[in-house]
Structure formats: structure tokens, C-alpha cells
Amino acid sequence: MVKICCIGAGYVGGPTMAVIALKCPEIEVAVVDISVSRIAAWNSDVLPIYEPGLDEADIVFVSVNTPTKTQGLGAGKAADLTYWESAARMIADVSKSNKIVVEKSTVPVKTAEAIEKILNHNSKGIDFQILSNPEFLAEGTAIQDLFNPDRVLIGGRETSEGQKAIEALRDVYAHWVPVERIICTNLWSAELSKLAANAFLAQRISSVNAMSALCEATGADVSQVSHAVGKDTRIGPKFLNASVGFGGSCFQKDILNLVYICECNGLPEVANYWKQVIKINDYQKTRFVNRIVSSMFNTVSGKKIAILGFAFKKDTGDTRETPAIDVCKGLLGDKALLSIYDPQVNEEQIQRDLAMKKFDWDHPVHLQPVSPTSIKQVNVVWDAYAATKDAHGVCVLTEWDEFKTLDYQRIYDNMRKPAFIFDGRNVVDEAKLREIGFIVYSIGKPLDQWLKDMPAVA
Ligand code: UGA
């Protein structure tokens, strides 16, 4: 019987192991994670030497977080491999039999080589084979993506032991994934493919968001442009929705990582190319804030602005790198009073996000700085109507379905006039809202006369 152990029960490790356990009844799956008391040990020189299930496992998945470094060499770009290194050292410590160690977390290219060194230098004669098996699931559709993946990617050493390890992992996935969808490559290709896939996806969004600015300037409609462009089968229709910007724990982090790797390899032109994807994303958020402020006579000081949606996309309560953070900070910088409603995100999380420094979110909660006293200009409410009451403007920052069917007449009646709505996700029915009396801004759509008269400078 094959035994699998996974270190890290986060967004990737948890669901992946659940699906393996479900699909492979003869495989025993154990998932371990750092508990509060164990954290102290992880961060000291004395690592926990035993995790239940680990010493007898044949395949060990490592699915721990790899935050962006905030200090030291590569700060703001490079991945911090502290948690990975700890995991590797622990595996070396407790292993009594040969192991296949699977990199599941997204890591910089050549991480496997470093991990291999740690394991082999501490191996006590045990054979370790490293595989890279990056995860492509998206939040909100994790189980669906795992059940029916476009592809499974397994990278390993090109030696006979390496090939055997690849086969062992392929056999696990072959329980439910058609073999033609299981791609086997060398280690570095697998590691790089993951960063490349996220960079390409983010690039599509930045491309369409760059177009959205041009659409507003010319009177074109970005939805129509996306539709027309996406009909080309070489381009395809997915991931072409203009937005206030992409968020989530991966896109920005992985691109920064890619940029760092390019720089380290003496490829500044390639690094700059990918940097632009992030710059356009930041530009889009700034542009949105500037549009709000300029439309309201160049000041939002003391004005109540309702924020509908805080999560980085719908159907999740996840707020990591959500564009809402930058938009809210931008408005707070102009002294607005914010009333925030998200069906899945609570006040504590929002206050923490608005107080936290960049990249801090990717460390375990108890290692994050204690949040300072909550920001007074921010009020979190549990209802869109409460958020919008007496507001001067409404911003839609997450595409929650419920925002499509709100009673906008009621919202309008309870708002200050002129009543503005800034739709960062293109979910509202602009024509209907204009009929009610709103001044409507939708990303990448032809502008109302009011907005044309009050140009925003990004
Ligand atoms: C992303 C990738 O889609 C997954 O394949 C990958 O495995 C994952 O990162 C990861 O590396 O862990 P995720 O971050 O869960 O998944 O979410 P996405 O659905 O990709 O959305 C990312 C952001 O782009 C969201 O803020 C979303 O609103 C935005 N987006 C997406 C747009 O603005 N426009 C679009 O057309 C699509």
C-alpha cells in the first residue's frame, strides 16, 4: 500500500489530498500542518522531529507557503523559502525509508536543486527523489479543477530513479486523470511552467485592462472588444474580463518571482517585460481611485463612499492581494469615509488588511504584526443597503452575483445627490441605473457626459 503525507493543509494541500484520498481508496493519506505550539519550533533551530504519518510515508507532498521576501536580499521580489527549508530538514530528520518528495507549493525555478541538497546532505543513506508537481487549481473551483484538470504536470530528474519516481506519482493521478493529460517533464520545466502559466493569465488581464483605458478614451466598449478578440480561436474567450485589477495570492507574487529570476540570470529585458504586467495592474487601481475622486469635484474628504465587495473575486472570502485594499487605501488617503460590505469577509479581516504592510499576509497569522487600532474612517456593515445609505458614491469591487439584483432604486433614494456608482467589475446594468438617475462609471465603457467633463488623470 502506498502512503502519502502532505505538509501544509492550506488552499492547495487540503483539497488536493482530499481528492487523492477520495479517488485512491487504497492509498493512505495523512495531512499535517503547523500547530501554534509547533510554530515556535519551526522558527527555532530545534525543528519538530516527528509528524504523525510522515516517517512511514512513501510520497511526501510539501505544500507550505512561499511568501515574498520583505527583508534582505531580493526583498519585495524573491520567494522566501524558510518554510520549505524547514519542511525539507524535517523530512530528512524523520525519514527511515526512501521517499519521493513532491514540491507542490509554487517555488522559484531551481528550488528542487536546493531541496535535494538539504535532503541528500542529511540522508543517512536514504534515497530521496524530488518531483515538481505544481498545482493549477483556482480558488472557488478547487474541487472541480482537481477532479477534471486541464493537465497534471510532473517534473523529475532524467535518471532512471527519477523516472521511476515520476511513474509512481503518475500512477496516483492516473486513478482519475486520463494519462494523456499527465505531462511529464524535467524538474526545471515543471517549476517554470507554473510561474509561466500564472504570468500568462495575469498578462491577459493586464492586456484587457490596458485596453479598457483606451476604450474609455475613445468611446469603445471593452466588453465588445473582448468578445470580438476572444472569438479568434487562437486567443480564446476566457480571462478577458476587464476589472479594477487582478488580485489573489499568486499572480503578483509569481510574477515578482519570475522577474527576480530573470534579473538573477542577467535578463533585464525579460524582467522588465513581465514587470509591466504588474505596473498595468497597479495603474488600473490608481486610475479607478482617480476617476472616483475627480468625478466628485476632486475631493472625497469627509464623504461617505460605499464599498461593495472586498474579496479578490466572487465565491471566496479570501482577501489576499485583493484590489479592494489598494482602492480603499487610495480613498482613505483622500480622507473618504468608507462603509464596506462583503458577504464573506468580516470586519476583523478588513481592518487587518487595511492596516497590514505589503506581503505580510503570507506568513502564519501569529507571526504577522499585531494590527494597530482599527482605522476610524472605516465602517464594516453586513448589508449593501446599510453601506450605501447616505453615501455619495458606491464602488463595486467584487463581482458577487447579489450585486446584480440589488434594489438600486431604493439605494438611489437613500443616497446623497448627485449619486455616483463606480463599477470595477462590470456587473451592474448601466442603462437601468442611468434611468434611475445615477452617474455611472463602468470600467472600459463609454463615459457619461459628467465623467467626460471631469477627466481623471492617472
Ligand atoms: C490563479 C490561477 O487561475 C490558477 O490556475 C492557479 O493555480 C492559482 O492562481 C495559483 O497559482 O494558486 P486564483 O488566484 O484562485 O487562481 O484566481 P483566478 O480565478 O485566477 O483570479 C485571479 C484574479 O484575476 C482575481 O482577482 C480575478 O477577479 C481576476 N480576473 C480574472 C480578472 O480581473 N479578469 C478575468 O478575466 C479573470
Describe this structure in words.
The chain is α/β, with parallel strands linked by helices. The protein has two domains: 3-177, Rossmann fold (3-Layer(aba) Sandwich), CATH 3.40.50.720; 219-453, NAD(P)-binding Rossmann-like Domain (Rossmann fold, 3-Layer(aba) Sandwich). 41% of the residues lie in helices and 13% in strands. The protein contains 16 helices and 13 strands. It has helices spanning 13-23, 36-42, 82-94, 111-121, 142-147, 160-173, 187-218, 222-230, 251-264, 268-295, 323-333, 347-355, 384-388, 408-413, 430-436, 449-453, and strands at 3-7, 28-32, 59-62, 99-103, 128-132, 152-156, 182-186, 304-308, 337-341, 378-380, 393-396, 420-423, 439-442. The strands form two sheets. The chain has a seven-stranded mixed beta sheet, sandwiched between helices. The chain has a six-stranded parallel beta sheet with strand order 10-9-8-11-12-13, sandwiched between helices. Helix 6 (160-173) links the parallel strand 6 and strand 7 (182-186). Helix 7 (187-218) packs parallel to helix 10 and helix 9 packs antiparallel against helix 10 (268-295). The longest helix is centred in the middle third of the chain and has 32 residues, at 187-218. It is elongated and about 75 Å long. Residues 37-54 have low confidence and may be disordered. The chain binds uridine-5'-diphosphate-glucuronic acid. Residues 106, 135-139, 198, 201, 205, 239-241, 243, 246-248, 250-251, 312-313 line the site of uridine-5'-diphosphate-glucuronic acid (UGA).
